[in-house]
Each structure stands twice: as structure tokens, then as C-alpha cells.
Amino acid sequence: MTQPSTKTWLFSSASAILLSQVATVAHAQAVAAPSASAYAQASAAAASDAPITTAPRGTATPIAGWTAAADGFVAMKSGQYTKAADRFVAALDSGDLNVDQKRAVTLALSDTLVQAGEPIHAAGVLSTLSPDSYDVASRLAYALDAAGKRPEAASAYKAAAAEAPNAGDRVQMSKGRVFALAALDRKADTLAEIAPLAGARELTSGDAVNLAYLAVKFGDDRLALRLFDQADATKPLSSEVALDAAYAARRLKQDEPAVRYFRQSLASAVVKPTLEAEQTRYQVRREVSDLSRKFSLTGAAFYDQNDNLTGVAPGANRGDLQLGAEAAYRPFGYNGGQTVEVFARAFETLAARRGDPTGPQTIQGWVGARVKPFTQQNFVLEASKLVPIGKNSISDWEVRASYSNTHGLDLRQDRRSWPMTHVYADTARLIDARETFALVDARIGRTWRVPAAKNLIAAPFLGAFATYDTPKTAAGLGPGVWFRQWFRETETMAPQSYVDLSLQYRLRLGGDKRASGFFLTFSAAY
After folding, report:
1. 265, 355, 429, 484: which could form a disulfide with 243 (CB 3.0–4.6 Å)?
2. pTM, whole model, 2 decimals?
3. 206 and 298 both lie in a single domain
4. pLDDT means per 10 residues in the chain (526 residues)?
5. Could you count the other beta carbons within 10 Å of the beta carbon of residue 162?
6. Are residues 298 and 223 in the same domain?
């Protein structure tokens, strides 16, 4: 067992004076004992089981060592650590104690020194005893830990665990080793020691939570979630802890436990009457909505006043008024933000000034799949088969990549208005037709809550738009306004659906007329 690096004490008549002086100086410093120190429990046990209280029967005059030890235990129980240490030293120096009595008094002296804030001296006292017993080994581990000797404490905890008389004490020592290793920032060793503790019946809910946070700190969310689950099974997690458990599950791409813990956090939270608290609660509800979504339905109608509009979706027919719809399914759920979707969509041209075909004959279908490979960035790759439905539609293959970054179109609970930015870029290639499409739509503005309607926002903006359609280009710039009505919410879910109305007028910057004039878009997402 690793011993403290400082000089240790050997009990003898010559060292007793030194020990008494050190103990007296230590207690004179009046350092408060740790509130949760295991030494407090050990000291109480030692005092209650004191082997020396009175002189043996038939002894007329109490022996000095026995009297001093008895005085020491009384002083220790009353918190008079200076007096207790002095009396214990006197008892040990008397030469009147047998081996067992001397051992008991030595343990009591070490406890007293730790309570007085001198753990390194307590370790020195304990070094005079054989470490091959739990009561000595555990005290030595605690003393070294309290003295800040983390490497030595970690080794001592391991030795104490090996001597533990029962599972509860063994778990207690193993926990001590875990926290000593964590203090040394020994990531791999800490996680290796935590893993066997997960599932131990002797762990309290608080123990499991503390170990879970260490697992989170050192990057093992899977181990952390096991411990959070264990703690929750013993005692329901508090709102704050449940929230951290939810994020651990979210990082593991485990949507169901993440949603459960997010909802538990919302249900057990103490709601504070502040806008900041309401916004935080809303953000958690938004997490529940995002993680719960597996199906989506979207629809949109597009109107352009010029007569040179190409299809608003690559491969769609051209026209001034077009209508589209899509149904999508996420087979793997939210998947930590790396979503996979399979979809089917269709577009139809309702009106065309140039005499182009309209109606059912223009319905163009798609079936395909898309993937969002990055957790944080909304970059999407798509592949689809164009399915001819109307007689004027085509059969082809399409590959597509898009990127979007939108801030400020969700609701906020803590302010009346906030900045809005929106960037959308899209490029697609029709394989058989050998046509390439690309567009960029960028907007900057400010979003306002509309007081007259619940969950309605309006965002005036200035937007720029550019498009490429083999081989033509067009670009425009102009003001607009974007309305969004959110709906379909619950106590634990933020609104999941919305209806959008966007109106913009663009001045022609270059290319043909496709990017100039009035543009009206109506869309809905369910």
C-alpha cells in the first residue's frame, strides 16, 4: 500500500512529546471538519465502542493510560479535538495499554486529527499499524484523499476495497478510488473503475448520479445513461438531472429515452415566473418535438407574375402558378440529427400564361431518399426517381444537394422581436436529360410576434435570389415579408406544424426575368 510521502510517526516515549505538540498545534488552528467526512462516522463508532472506559474490576486506583484514553473518547464525542488528541497521546505514551487497546486508541487519534484538519498527520499515525485490515486501510485512504495526496489515495482505496468485509464497504472504497482518479484527470482509469459500479445495488441514487456526471465529463455517454437510469429507478431524477440525462441519450441517438427524460424534466421543473425560464422551457419542448417526429407532410403553392417561370422543383413543368406536396418518413427517427428520410412528392402546374400545359397532365412525381450526414449542419444529400404521372411529365433520375441555415423563425418566449436570417442553397442534376439546376435564396430581417394572434410571427426582410437552369441565369433583390403561424403544440411539445405566407418584390439584377417581379409562396408543414 502506498504510504504518504511525509515523515511518519513511530510511537515511543521519545516520539510522544513530538506527537502531542503536533496534535496541539493542529487543533489550535480550529479547522472545521468536512460535513460529509467518513471520519465523522468512524470517530462516532470508535467513541461508542471505546474499549477503555474504566479501570478493571478489583483495581483500586485507575491506571494512567486507561484514564487518559477514557478522557480522550469523552472529549472526542463532545468535539474537543485538541483535548482528545492530547489525552490519546498521553494514553499511548503511558505504556499501560495492551496491543488491542493501543490499536483502538491509535485509530481514535487518527480520526481526531482528520476532524481537526490534519489528515496528513493522521496518515502518519495510521502508518504505525498494519494496513492489512479494513478499518486501518479505509482510514488511510480517506486521510490521504483529504490531504490531497490523490495518487496515494487512489492506491489506498484499492487496497481498502480488497479488505472490505461486505459489498457496501467495497462499493464505498471503489467510489473513493473513482473520485481520486477523476481528480487526477485519468480518464481511462476513471471510466474503467466506474463501469463495475453500474448496477451495484449498494449505490444510492445520489451515488449513481455523481458517477453519471463523471462519465459524461470523460465522454462516455453510454455508461452515464446506464447510471442515470439506475438512479432514476431508485428515485426519480430532479428536473436538472433529468435534462442532462436527456441530452446524454440524445447524443447517443437514443430518441425514446431522450424524449422520456426531456418530458420528465418538464414535468418536475419548478416553473419560475420569468421570461428566461419560459424560453428555456420552450427550448426543451422544441427538443421533444424534434425527437418525436417520424412522419412529415408538406405542401406549397408558388405564384410568379412574370411569364418566364421554370419549374420551382427541378424536373417540374413550367408555369406561373404551381402546387406541390410531399410525404416523408424517418425510419431511424431523429438519429442525433443525422436523419434519413424516404419520401414521395408531386408537383402540378395550375396556370401558365405562355400557353404551356396545365392541370393533371403536368403532374410530376418523385420517389427517393435523402440523408443529413452532419449533426449540426443542415446539409442534405438526395437521390430520387422522377415518375411520370401526367402525360407531360418525364421519367429520369435526379441527384441533389442542399444547404440551409435559418435563425429567427421559431417562436420566442422572452422577447417581442428578434433578428432573422435565412440562407438556402440547392443544386440538382437530371441524369438522363443532362440538365443542372441551382439556386440561392438569402434573406435578412427581423421577426416580430403578432399580438393579435397566438403563435403568429411576421418577419419583414430584404432578400436576394439567384438561379441557374442550363444554360440560363437570373438574379434579383428586393424587400418582402414572411408570415408564419405555428400550431399543434402540447404541454411538453413545442408547436410541430406551421403555415407560411411569403410575399416579395424583386428588382432584376442580371440574367433573364425569372428572378424579378412579385413572388408569392404559400406553404404548410405538418
Report:
1. 265
2. 0.79
3. no
4. 30 27 27 32 41 40 76 90 89 88 92 90 91 92 94 96 95 97 97 96 96 98 98 95 97 96 91 81 96 96 67 59 95 95 95 84 96 96 97 96 97 95 97 95 98 95 94 94 97 96 96 90 95
5. 13
6. no
